[in-house]
Amino acid sequence: MKLEGSCHCGSVRFSCKAYAPVPYMHCYCSICRKTAGGGGYAINLGAYAESLKVEGREHLAVYQAVIHDEHGDTRTSSGQRHFCRLCGSALWLYDPTWPELVHPHASAIDTPLPEAPERVHIQLDSKASWVPAPEGPHDAHFPEYPDESLREWHRRHGLLDD
Questions:
Q1: Tens of pLDDT along the chain (162 residues)?
Q2: DSSP per residue, 4-57
Q3: Signal peptide: which range, if any (predicted)?
Q4: Does the model's pTM come out above 0.85?
């Protein structure tokens, strides 16, 4: 599915081909909720990095989070969170660990997205206390990450062409 997205002020526009276009995984980690906002979580989609086309690249900035472990040690995340430096909109994440992929934020997508048959709430151990995580028959909850990947979830729900 071709996705088109933009920042709030319109200075950055982008498109990409998504292999996993259904917004189902709500990430409550402190990085996602603080950099992407919106409900206290972020929803990332799966797309092919080679298909990413960007207009207004000069308005982009990249943030790489500093991660603190349980021993007090820190490291810089390999994830490169792209955002508009003019309005602050979170746009996509690229991680060179998986160079063939890019993960647009569902909140930045202008193309109508399909409704998810299930919502997966991840990183609930990091969830802010004020944020409710819905608990319905179509909600799955994980303290950290599920074993199932974006691709596997889409395949299980019959949402992939491959």
A1: 999 999 999 999 999 999 989 999 999 988 888 888 767 788 889 999 999 999 999 999 999 999 888 888 999 999 999 999 999 999 999 999 999 999 999 999 999 999 999 999 999 999 999 989 999 999 999 999 999 988 899 899 988 766
A2: EEE-SSSS-EEEEEEEE----EEE--HHHHHHH-TTT-EEB-EEEGGG-EEE-G
A3: none
A4: yes
Query: Would residue 101 count as lying in a domain?
Result: yes
Burial class of residue 99, CB neighbours in 10 A (0-12, 13-18, 19+): exposed
User: How far are the Cα atoms of 3, 73, 151, 159 from residue 87, in angstroms, in the given order?
Assistant: 21, 32, 31, 33
Count of the separate structural domains present in the chain? 1
Give the domain extent around 124: 2-156
Is residue 29, in this structure, part of any structural domain at all? yes
